[in-house]
Design a protein that fits this description.
By secondary structure, the protein is mostly helical. The chain contains 8 helices and 3 strands, in the order αβββααααααα. The N and C termini lie close together (10 Å). Its EC number is 2.5.1.18.
Length: 179
């Protein structure tokens, strides 16, 4: 399974050994005697711990909000992407108008948040939310050959996040991830 999921193994203490999971799901994060299940809960925890969770309560709320909105977006386009990836049967042409409309709505909204923040990120400085959104944009580029042409400013945003000095080397070294 050459996916981003396995890459989590690079990070000590994040595990995907399903048999050790009390919920039957991965990933989880072990910290001392505590265990955090759920990808967003553990990402949010790491964001707070490493000062990547917004400068105040409002910024933290805006990060949580846009991440939840992004999750809804992917739930809505799932049926199209799943057929596009060859994981399920379906008629791409029939699914395309709804997919296009959902993309337009979500990426127009994301662009408006970026324009409002003026920092190049979703809040006044880079946050865990930007990491998550950038990964989602890479996924869209991987599966929709028209995406970059349609949303060049959104792709610029992803490239800005990935060229941040603290993650640039990691992003370059991890290689292509088709997920
Ligand atoms: N809401 C959970 C979903 C986790 C999830 O579905 N993980 C998959 C792997 S990506 C899993 O554990 N699948 C095993 C199973 O459902 O049996 C999260 O975001 O952490």
């Amino acid at each position: 399974m050459p996916s981003r999921f396995l890459k989590l193994l690079w990070i000590p203490k994040i595990s995907n050994n399903f048999s050790a999971s009390e919920t039957g799901k991965a990933p989880w994060l072990d910290v001392d005697n505590e265990r955090i299940y759920e990808s967003l809960a553990l990402t949010r925890y790491l964001g707070r711990k490493f000062n990547l969770a917004g400068k105040d309560e409002m910024e933290s709320a805006q990060i949580d909000s846009i991440v939840d909105t992004c999750k809804d977006f992917f739930d809505e386009v799932q049926s199209y992407l799943s057929v596009k990836r060859g994981r399920s049967e379906g008629n791409l042409e029939e699914l395309r108008p709804k997919y296009d409309e959902t993309c337009k709505k979500w990426y127009t909204y994301l662009q408006s948040r970026l324009d409002k923040a003026k920092s190049g990120f979703i809040t006044s400085k880079i946050s865990w939310g930007d990491f998550l959104l950038a990964e989602g944009i890479l996924t869209m580029q991987n599966f929709d050959e028209e995406f970059t042409g349609k949303y060049p400013k959104i792709v610029e945003y992803k490239d800005r996040v990935f060229s941040h000095p603290k993650i640039k080397e990691y992003v370059e070294k991890r290689g292509d991830l088709l997920y």
